[in-house]
TrEMBL record, chains A, B:
Belongs to the class-IV pyridoxal-phosphate-dependent aminotransferase family. Keywords: Amino-acid biosynthesis, Aminotransferase, Branched-chain amino acid biosynthesis, Pyridoxal phosphate, Transferase. This is Branched-chain-amino-acid aminotransferase. It is an enzyme of class 2 (transferase). The lineage of its organism: Bacteria, Pseudomonadati, Bacteroidota, Flavobacteriia, Flavobacteriales. It comes from Robiginitalea biformata (strain ATCC BAA-864 / DSM 15991 / KCTC 12146 / HTCC2501).
Length: 355, 355
């Protein structure tokens, strides 16, 4: 499906909020830029797109988003290099995945070009919001939700696609202690776990609150059948290093096809690091921790890039992880952020110039 | 948790839309009454409730409902009897279940009284919208969604609770052909399937669209492990009659605790109908269809009350169901609607007078 993207009209704000923002003390995703990109779907097609001031949406209380959670989203970032140039990281992967998610959630796919043209139009207008501070970036949130109305439990007939941006600091601060979950589950076989669908996230909040009461920052989800295999962490894919072998679970209909995950795998393979993409039993991780061969665990995702895990809880035991000098987590974090911030060669063509 | 419900202030519409509505040709849930009930949660507590004109909601694009599907809802109805009196059906069950759903979705529970007082205040104002036509009723939709903002994948700090109403005709028209699903799944063990959470519904739309292309109106979900057991139909619980025994699956963390379901079970037991609440294998239903002992299947839920199933598809076969003269579906539909519309005794105290 392809449409001609007309020139995207821009309604600019009268006065930028940029001077009010303290770029040296950015939280994650809580201050928003001056503008947003917006395109609506109705009468069977995506309508004229536009860039407008960031501001409230007006929705009928019967809009299906409120009732049936019909929504999908993406997470991506824009980076500023030391020369002031701005870059994206593998944006075509986000575009592709948003359509995969949309299809599973009965949301009309975006026509070719709409995602990238919208993104570029918005970032041209809000270019000055891309932080230059080390470790900060402009977090970009494309999302589509059901704005059509009715209490009938069926797909909406109208949707709204928005791209909004928030200059952001780091997602997690410091190391992360995780709980390997055995009671609650994130996804079903044949379900929506591989999609970035809104409801997948809300379902994790309560079990994560319970884990937080026991001192954990994140939950590592296991398969819902027997809680035998490590799957993902909801906002991150999970990597395990046993000896010098780097391991992660294969993607499936329960596991998100993470862009940071696949970038790490590609880097590792190119560097000759032994990689195993296979189902990882909780028992083997526990065993490896006990016999000293478990050297690292880390999460990987756009928001946090790479998050080293300092310990994991399993049943009533807490397993501390060592801090190896030759940390894969630190290595891949550096390699990926060096590419993102244009501090290193880009052997795979992942960087996308915003000019 | 309990709060004193202050008198609920009412802002009335200037001019009712009631005269515009064709009550003899009502669809389901697509025309809304003049008013809605609204209460917001912020700063750690539910604020002053109010009844206001039904109208657009204004929300920040970063409201977490758009991103993380954090929402729960209920479905219930108000009925008008031949004397013009109005009734609810087991509303305390909806109140109880809404809080169970809220808890699972990390949404603050409603304090005692807020749900019932809000409902009564709204229905007092919009009382004339309760249809008197046979088979029609006022569909009532209480829902709570995350209105707090931020791109961080964590529970919102603000929520909006709304009750909106739609005078409605029947949900399904005619008999229903269903597909027993073996590829897609609705819920995971340890997931959110027992909650009326928005995201549970969006996940069903695509597989239901696929089934519709093959001529089915609904999907019967099976367990996600081996697709061996019949679970529920998403908007309905499922009953099977083999011989004279009425069977339905036990509730679990994958299956909604339906109010129509439990009402049918209670009626059946009081009438001496043999009832089995147990896991039902797809294979035994297929076998019973082949040997002629499968006499009925029907769905049960608030929207449709009881929906007779005329046929089911399994793998590539279509199994037609007989139309027994002593239909349980017809019997329970009549017994329940007779209670709802105050046409019969109410042995269990299910009717709730609105005056």
């Amino acid at each position: 499906m392809s449409i001609t993207i007309n020139e995207i009209p821009v309604k600019r704000v009268d006065k930028s909020r940029l001077p009010e923002v303290d770029f040296d003390n950015l939280a994650f995703g809580s201050v928003f830029t001056d503008h947003m990109f917006r395109c609506t779907y109705r009468e069977g097609r995506w309508q004229q797109a536009e860039v407008v001031p960031y501001g409230p949406l007006t929705l009928d209380p019967a809009s299906k988003i409120f009732h049936y959670g019909q929504s999908v989203f993406e997470g991506m970032k824009a980076y500023r290099d030391s020369d002031g140039k701005a870059w994206l990281f593998r944006p075509e992967e986000n575009q592709r995945r948003l359509n995969i998610s949309a299809s599973r959630m009965a949301i009309p796919e975006l026509p070719d070009g709409l995602f990238m043209e919208g993104l570029k139009a918005l970032l041209e207008v809000d270019r000055d919001w891309i932080p230059g501070q080390s470790g900060s970036s402009l977090y970009i949130r494309p999302f589509i939700f059901a704005s059509g109305t009715g209490f009938h439990a069926s797909p909406a007939d109208a949707f709204t696609f928005i791209i909004a941006c928030a200059p952001s600091g780091s997602y997690f601060s410091g190391k992360v202690s995780v709980k390997i979950e055995e009671a609650y589950s994130r996804a079903a076989d044949g379900g929506t776990g591989f999609a970035k669908a809104g409801g997948n996230y809300a379902g994790q909040f309560y079990p994560t609150q319970l884990a937080a009461r026991d001192g954990f920052q994140q939950v590592i989800w296991t398969d819902d059948h027997r809680h035998e295999y490590i799957e993902e962490a909801g906002a991150m894919n999970i990597f395990v290093r046993i000896g010098d072998t780097l391991m992660t679970a294969p993607t499936s209909d329960r596991i998100l096809d993470g862009i940071t995950r696949k970038s790490i795998l590609q880097l590792a393979e190119s560097e000759g690091i032994p990689v195993e993409v296979r189902k990882i039993r909780v028992a083997e991780v526990v065993e490896a921790s006990k016999n000293g061969s478990l050297r690292e665990m880390f999460g990987a995702g756009t928001a946090a890039v790479v998050s080293p895990i300092s310990s994991f809880g399993y049943r009533d035991e807490l397993f501390e992880l060592p801090e190896p000098e030759d940390s894969y987590a630190a290595h891949f974090k550096k390699r990926i952020t060096d590419i993102q911030y244009n501090r290193a060669e880009d052997p795979f063509g992942w960087r996308y110039p915003l000019g």
